[in-house]
Amino acid sequence: MDKVINLMSDTVTKPGTAMLKAMMSAEVGDDVFRQDPTINRLEKLAADLFEKEGALFCPSGTMTNQIAIKVHTQPLDEVICDELSHIYQYETGGYAFNSGVAINLIKGNNGKITADQIEAAIKDDYDWLPKSSLVVLENSCNKGGGSYYTLEEIATISALCKERGLKLHLDGARLFNVLVETGESTAEVGRYFDSLSICLSKGLGAPVGSLLIGDTDFISQARRFRKVMGGGMRQAGILAAAGIYALENNVERLKIDNDRAKEIAEILGQCNFVDDIRPVKTNILIFDIKSKYDVQELLKKLKENDILAVQFGPQTIRFVFHLDITKEMMDRLKTVLSQLSLPSRDFNSSRISAARS
Ligand SMILES: *Cc1c(COP(=O)(O)O)cnc(C)c1O
Question: pTM for this structure?
Fold first, then answer.
């Protein structure tokens, strides 16, 4: 058993024995010829969950988002989204490279934008302006500290998009972390979006894979773009089997991860080096440390205790909770955090950084 408490992301999870067994016994075929029964089963399962006509298994969530942008837009269009969105922050500017579109960023509330903000952002129809054609929401929002939209908020945005002729895509990399909190169903969510992307390789614990979900026309175009992006896989049913296992076994337990993020936030609230903690809504915990302390110093101290986390800004750290964190690890994490003391930056180094700025 790993003793390292790896909170760097929920992508660090490794397949357990039961998932590996499902992978080893998967029936496979060539998926480019649509002959992989396990992939076909996973795609059907996902489409049914969201009450859409089809789904497409892809290697990553970056690919599913990029394909969605490609299908929903023409070059010279623009995508409207929050400034913290994964499609803007962490997909290498792929919207411009793959689709030739501009991006119209909205400053939201911890990653969440409102229908009013979107309405104000939609551009009028002039030759010299990019054409607003797609809105992308992220639920939960990673850089927003795991914040989420309720169905009511989504419904209002969806109605606006319909009225104004814009498509609506959901980057639902961690959607299930939201649904275990709200009790809302996948079918209800599916109704409001033209397409949805969900990740199997985050909190759900599969080693690889994301699903792009939508209606028949959308999926058949998406399939062509997956191919040109190099994402047409062959006997990938081995991976799809892990995805089926994840959807059937690892959804409900996500509530544990969400609750653990809240528990640790409470402990951090007692630590003298901690400044702002973003409201904890799901399995992501983002916090700042006071300016007299150094993030690298904190990460080093954590690492000495076999705890790994990532820097998420100049004074910011992110912890992500997931299924490979055991009860024992939680106890140890709590003990380490409540006993941790950090040296404040020394006089000399603060003078040097002041001189530099
Ligand atoms: C992880 C993630 C993705 C996709 O990431 P991949 O690493 O390409 O699978 C997309 N959106 C959000 C919000 C994510 O957290």
Answer: 0.95
